[in-house]
Structure formats: structure tokens, C-alpha cells
Amino acid sequence: MKKYVILIFFLIFFLNWSFGQEKPYVLIVSFDGFRHDYVERFDLPNFKGFINEGSQAEALIPSFPSKTFPNHYAIITGLYPGHNGLVDNQFYDIKRKEFFTMREREKVTDKYYYGGVPLWTLAQQHGMKTASYFWVGSESPTEGDHPDYYYTYDESVPFETRVTKVAEWLKLPEMERPQFITLYFSSPDHESHGFGPLSEEARLAAVRMDSLLGMLMTQIEKIDLPVNTLLVSDHGMKELTFRDETFIFLDEIMDLKNKSIIWSNGGTQTHIYTKSKDQADSLFEVIKAKQKHFTVLRKSQYKEEWNFDHYRSGDLMLTADPGFYIYERNRKHLMKKQELGTKMGVHGYDPLMEPDMHGIFYAKGPNVQNGVVLPPFQNIHIYPFIAQILGLEVPSIDGEAEVLNPILKK
């Protein structure tokens, strides 16, 4: 009889211990275009308080090109854009013979363009609920390719509404509650583009994001759950001056009327697709002879570190030097649109060469060490870090768990 009493005691103890172990939650928040130096430059108290309670990287290095769509999707898949297929904000798909642009809803929601296993899909495969208040790749209509709770992107939705919804998700009954959540804000990217990353408008936008972070953390702290919060950005921003010599025009260096050549311009780089290797070689020589403030590359010359050898990347590519920007045509028309000497902001340059492209990584929570400062690292390594917190088996990716292990609390 005594033996059975002991067995029952240990069974009750084990059950109490098991159910007492709260499962971890992860919330990843993206502030679009938030440059690596904004917290100190603009003296943002809520960001500073967040950092003091957790760990940080000196900077987060985007994947090439340092654009919004490729980098949000690189973060959520752990794959370089050249490996997950979302190689730019806009590009040409030679198999479908069509352009992808981030402004076409039909393309943005088409699973065809999105490779890899997004974190929400991986979490669902492990029996977890997931949610997204906006993230690149989250809007696929195919069941299993989108989070359990998600919204079609609408920039007009107030930022505060998004924060409130995240708190509501975390208050759901346990069986309905998402363990992995993404949250996206389009600021301070918008303001930095229009007025430059060092402008008063950019500062005020960053201050607003700081206030929003304070609101978010206040709401999360009221909820008795072990939530790990990660703050990231997709890229930084470089200041340009509006003047004639800043701009490179495609119609001045190649024949845009030649229908056998297809091109997709992203401002900091231009993809060029040709019919044959001979045509690519010939065009390369024509453009190289006019090379000034940009570099023309054959696909075979792309940097190995870019991991950018994908059929959707151009046979040739023009990459603007930092501080310069590529337009398609009509220099006179552009120069009438804005006052000379005014500032603007752009991104997309090689992040391995231009530090202004670097973003942020800050993290805090029950599974995050306190006080660790990591050297700059590439954003593909965030995926396995989140997977470790949630206990997910990681598929084949580019990211490596060892990079963020110093801030992981076992």
C-alpha cells in the first residue's frame, strides 16, 4: 500500500511540474527602415529601456539587396533572397515571363514567388497557433502557407490598432492563443525616404515609434505570459542630395527601346535580362564603356557573399555606388520635380559595403540573456534563434543557430 502511495505522490508531482512549465511565446516586431544608430542619435528612452533589460546586436546586416520585401522574407525563412526566390522588391520571372512587383496584390499573394518554410508554417507544423499583423509572405490564400490569424496589408491601419490586436491575441484562451506573432510598422522608412534619414521628420517618426514601443511593452507586461520580444528592421537608410549628378539614367547608357532586352529597375540596382549569352556579353561592353558612379556585373561576377545566383536575378546587373541612384529615363523631367539641394533617403546598396544600410536587433524576455552585445550579424540567423526558443526542428536554411547562442537563455 505504501508503495502505491509513493507512486501516486510522484505522479501528482510530475503532473504539477509539467503543467507548471509555461510554454514560451515569441513576438517579432519590425520597424521598417529603422537605422542602426537611431536609438542613440535620436535619444529614444523606450528603446534604451528595452535594451537595458535584454540583449542587442551592434547592428543587423540585411541580405543583398537591402530592400523591404527581400529582407522581411529572409528574416522569416532564414534564407538569403537568392535562395528563397524573393530577390528584390520587383524583378522579372523568366519562367512565367512576367514581372513581380510589391504593389500588385495578385503577385504579392501568389505562393509561387515565395520559397522556404516561413516561421509561422514551421510553428504550425509543430502544432502551434501563429498570428501576423502584417509581414511579407503572410498573405498567401493557400491553407498552411499563412498564419492562423493574419490581415491583408493595409498601410492605413493605425499603428495603435495593431498593438492592441497583438495584446488581444495574447489574451486568447490557451488553445486558441498564438505562440508566434509578427508585427510590422512602415515607419520611419516612409519619412526617411521623403526627407532623408537625418531629417527632423525622420527624428519625429523615430520618436513616435519609441512611444509605440512603450505602449506595446506596457500591454505585454500586463499579460502574465513568458513573451520573448524581438525588435528588428529590414534595412537602414542613406541620405542623398537632390542634384543632377546624383542620378544615373538608363536611357543614357542603353537602348531602352530594344524589346529583346528586359529590365527591372530598383534604383540602387537594375536587373537586366537578355535573350542569349552573346547579347549579354555585347550589352555588358556597351554599358561598361559608360560606367560612372555605378558598376555593371555579369551574373558570374556577383559577389559570393550575396548568395544571389538565382534565375530571377538579372543576367547583368547595374549597382549604383552609395550616394547615387538609378532612374529609367527623362533627366530633364525629374530635375523639375524637386528643389535642388533637398535631401532624400534610399536603401538597397550592398550592406556588406555600406554601413548606413544596417538595421537593428534588440531582444528581451525569459529566454533571452541580459546585457549581451553581439557584433553585427546577418538577418538570416534570427530564424534558428526563434526556432530554438519555441522548440522547433529547423529545416535546411542559411541561418546558423550558433550566431545568437550567446543571448539564448537555456
What does this structure look like?
With 410 residues, the chain is an alpha/beta fold. It has helices at residues 2-20, 38-41, 45-52, 68-77, 81-84, 105-108, 119-125, 159-170, 189-195, 200-221, 277-288, 331-335, 382-390; strands at residues 25-31, 55-57, 60-61, 90-93, 98-101, 130-133, 149-150, 180-185, 227-232, 238-241, 247-249, 262-265, 269-273, 294-298, 316-320, 325-327, 343-346, 361-364, 373-374, 377-378. The strands form 6 sheets. The chain has an 8-stranded mixed β-sheet, with helices on both faces. A 4-stranded antiparallel β-sheet has the order 12-13-15-14, covered by helices on one side. The protein has a two-stranded parallel sheet with strand order 3-20. The longest helix has 22 residues, at 200-221. 44% of the residues are buried.
Number of distinct beta strands:
20
Category by helix and strand content: alpha/beta
Oligomer: single chain
Bulk shape: globular
Distance between the termini: 40 Å
